[in-house]
Write a sequence for this structure.
């Protein structure tokens, strides 16, 4: 089990890494139509659609990490 201090440090490092890797800001969220299109393409095996969904949800991931 990780200590609370270590867990906090790891979550802060992950938040920082996510923020830095996207050139200082997160990509804007996808519109409903864009997200549905990506989900459809991802089901069909399009790896770029999967990457796009992940990248455009980094803001949510960082928010969850920061709150945790």
């Amino acid at each position: 089990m990780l200590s609370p201090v270590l867990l906090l440090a790891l979550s802060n490092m992950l938040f920082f890494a996510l923020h830095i890797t996207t050139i200082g800001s997160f990509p804007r969220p996808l519109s409903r139509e864009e997200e549905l299109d990506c989900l459809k393409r991802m089901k069909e095996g399009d790896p770029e659609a999967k990457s796009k969904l992940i990248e455009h949800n980094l803001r949510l991931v960082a928010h969850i990490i920061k709150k945790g």
About this structure: The chain has a mean pLDDT of 80. The radius of gyration is 15 Å. The chain has one domain: 4-67.
